[in-house]
Amino acid sequence: MSYVPLPLPDRVQLAPEESLAHVRAYRDYMRKRHSVREFSADPVDAAVIRACVEVAGTAPSGANQQPWHFVAISDAAMKARIREAAEEEERAFYAGGGGDEWLATLEPVGTGPDKPHLTTAPWLIVVFAQRYGLEDGRRHKHYYVPESVGIACGMLISAIHHAGLVTLEHTPNPMKFLNELCNRPDNEKPVMILPVGLPAATATVPAAAKRKKPLDQIMTIF
Questions:
Q1: Do 36 and 203 contact (CB within 8 A), yes or no?
Q2: Which long-range contacts (CB under 8 A, 24 or more apart) does 92-96 make?
Q3: Helix (H, G, I), strand (E, B) or coil at 166
Q4: Mean pLDDT for each 10-residue chunk of the chain (222 residues)?
Q5: What pTM was computed for the model?
Q6: Beta strands at 68-73 and 166-167: parallel, antiparallel or unpaired
Q7: Distances from the Cα of 210 to the Cα of 2, 33, 163, 197, 204, angstroms
Q8: Is the C or the N end of the chain the one with fewer CB within 10 Å?
């Protein structure tokens, strides 16, 4: 495919005062996003999940290669298998495999080896990163894969929040079992499981998670 420039299809430019108001409103809305571990079993329409993944699919990527695949799972038996495999890895981690420093860092977050959210949440979205492409049986290199998939995950999490739902960024390690379970090829690496649904009526968040670094610690202006 050769380079063909197109006129900018969409313009969303705002007047300066509108720009500031819009971004501040978005900032305030995103401050209401929380990583939740206690989910309601209430169902979520598959169309909502599809729309969220469609948002993720618009993410920018290196050379526009879009090196990602999303597997959405509502099947109870499949979710149970994922939970069983994930908890096996987590038990080894919390038994000492993670190291004292890492475990101490996680203590204020209140995590542990039990992952009921993997079966309670009505949906799991498993994110795969395509380490290289395959076309007609031929392998070709993908560029900036972690960066591209990271951007897509951020947009997916934002879309889930925009849909009035909650999620949790779950990264069991290793996750190779997900390739076989989700019938994904070897060129794809599972990087994240996102349980998606409504929060339980008794949902909580760790107090430590509400402590965000102030702007002057995360931004420098020249």
A1: yes
A2: 93/173
A3: strand
A4: 92 94 97 96 98 98 96 98 91 85 85 93 98 89 96 98 96 84 95 97 93 96 97
A5: 0.94
A6: unpaired
A7: 48, 10, 22, 21, 12
A8: C
- Asked whether the beta carbons of 200 and 39 are under 8 A apart, the reply is yes
Q: Are 174 and 190 in contact (CB under 8 A)?
A: no
Q: Are 126 and 141 spatial neighbours (Cβ–Cβ below 8 Å)?
A: no
- The angle subtended at Cα 69 by Cα 68 and Cα 74, nearest 5°, is 145
By the 10 Å C-beta count (0-12 exposed, 13-18 middle, 19+ buried), 32 is classed as exposed
The burial class, CB within 10 Å (0-12 / 13-18 / 19+), for 190 is buried
With 0-12 / 13-18 / 19 or more C-beta atoms within 10 angstroms meaning exposed / middle / buried, residue 152 is buried
Whose structure tokens read 């499949």? Answer: 78
